[in-house]
Amino acid sequence: MIPEGTRYYLPPEARLRRELAGRLTELFHTWGYELVELPALELYDPHHVLAERSFKLVDKTGDVLALRSDFTSALANMTLAFPPERYPLRMQYAGQVWLREADAELGRVREYTQFGIELIGVSSPRADAEILELAWEALRALGFAEARIEVGLPSLVRDLLQSTGLSGAQIETLRQAIHHKNIPELSSLLEAYRVSENLAPTILALPDLYGGREVLQKARELSLTDKATADLDWLEATLSLLPDVPLLLDLGRARRLDYYTGINFQAYTQDFGLPLLGGGRYDGTLLPQACGFTVGLERVMEALRLPSEAGVPDVLALDRQMAHRLRAEGKRVELAWTDDLTALRHYARERGIPFIALEGRLEEA
Amino acid sequence: MIRGKYALTLALPKGRNLKDGYAALQRAALEAWHAEGLELPPFGAERALIHGEEGRVAILELRNADVPLYVDLGIADAGVVGKDVLLESGRDVYEPVDLRTGYCRLSLIRHPDNTGPIRRVATKYPNFTARVFRERGLVADIIELAGNVELAALTGLADAIVDLVSTGATIRANGLVEVEVLAHSTTRFIVNRQALKLKSDLLRPLIERLRQQSQALAEG
């Protein structure tokens, strides 16, 4: 028995996971992101974004510990504890996180494997463009050449909602309607809350502002506050740095407005209903300036739909010298455990190993 | 596995919303997908669980409560479902059109003899009920029933129930009282977050048409 929400990774899945992990680590490395390792055990912090949902343990001192539930905050804490000599700081991480309650999106899994990067200490359209391009490269390295990254601008939604002057609860109700693209409800809420004639049509237009880069132009035609215009300028500057990256826009993205302070994004692939990666800019929430993204390995594996059968070795070898030579040629060679040729042939045939290496020659099994 | 097999997969609920939902979608699809040469598959009495031909539009006939789940997890690209079911499911899907059919309400219902504070409430909508009670700072045991919820109020299993009401005839016939309407419900068109973006050439015009139809219904 293993705990609910955990699982065994058997061949060939475990090997493929390692291989994909290797590709990402290497890619991030070539972009200058340094690998760091962080403890899986953390001191429990009631202000942590996922405090309620993390696994807790009791230390020998009686202090409460938590299993790591999020890399971004763990990295932020590390950066605060060991301030770097200079910025920008580029870091990558890989490892597991645990959540006590399964996330509805991820099914029953409670142990996840995440890969990601953080670009810390700078805040500019250039920095945003860097992580978007790297996210795109990561998708291609994983084999999702058809995937699309969708960029939202939570800062725009937040600035528009805040300029209505409504209460926090009312803004939250509006945010939910925008998040669900629930136009009929949004329309009646704007009326009920008596949002000004300047702002109401702009807010009502947000949910339908999705599509390609033309969306930006459509947004410009709306009546905007100065802050909102500045948000759009930033996004436009970011996009103009990435003319060759296929991006989608959705200016109605209104997830976690208190967390994201600039862009946020997710990547989708055809005929797979869940996002492959996600990230954005969160200046001032954990660190003064930071952005990054996370790739969920379990999600990627599910979307790739890889072969379910483990590979078979090429040769079963009785001859150890020959086994060395064949491996050097890139063959996959298993050693024989016995001299009993009948038993070996039987085993090779059953497993589908085509050749037996015997006294300096290859025989068909 | 049906991934990639159909141009678009739609989830429709069995029961009260099936006919209206299908009719609304069929009408909207006729104009929205004229250029693509696509239409809703015929929906006969055959026993198939998936209706439609490969490479075209497919319809999944589901239990009401399963529609948000299929859409949220992206097995279906879009679907039709009552707001009551959506409120209960808490699923994170787009909800771009109110089809304005299938009107009903989720109400708090009690036996007239029961006037004290609510200690135990029976319902088919436990998540929704828990949320409403929590928001009001009320503490009550919530019991989930599979059906005939009125019976819980009549027999004293619970001292209140939260249930779907359309005309209120059943409630009155059993001598129960609709104390308060907690939420209004109509049929909604819901869309998966990824599908709206990746299949927007099919979904965007469909949503546009559905909105026009719904507007006409409101003005009609």
Automatic annotation (TrEMBL), chain A:
Pathway: Amino-acid biosynthesis; L-histidine biosynthesis; L-histidine from 5-phospho-alpha-D-ribose 1-diphosphate: step 1/9. It comes from the Bacteria. Keywords: Amino-acid biosynthesis, Cytoplasm, Glycosyltransferase, Histidine biosynthesis, Transferase. InterPro entries: aa-tRNA-synth_II, aa-tRNA-synth_II/BPL/LPL, HisRS-like_core, HisRS/HisZ, HisZ. It holds the Pfam family tRNA-synt_His. GO terms for molecular function: glycosyltransferase activity; histidine-tRNA ligase activity. GO terms for biological process: histidyl-tRNA aminoacylation; L-histidine biosynthetic process. Signal peptide: none annotated. This function is generally fulfilled by the C-terminal part of HisG, which is missing in some bacteria such as this one. NCBIfam families: PRK12292.3-3. This is ATP phosphoribosyltransferase regulatory subunit. It comes from Calidithermus roseus.
From TrEMBL, chain B:
Its EC number is 2.4.2.17. Keywords: Amino-acid biosynthesis, ATP-binding, Cytoplasm, Glycosyltransferase, Histidine biosynthesis, Nucleotide-binding, Transferase. Its main location: cytoplasm. It catalyses: 1-(5-phospho-beta-D-ribosyl)-ATP + diphosphate = 5-phospho-alpha-D-ribose 1-diphosphate + ATP. It is an enzyme of class 2 (transferase). GO terms for molecular function: ATP binding; ATP phosphoribosyltransferase activity. GO terms for cellular component: cytoplasm. The keyword Transferase applies. Lacks the C-terminal regulatory region which is replaced by HisZ. Heteromultimer composed of HisG and HisZ subunits. This is ATP phosphoribosyltransferase. It comes from Calidithermus roseus. The gene is hisG.
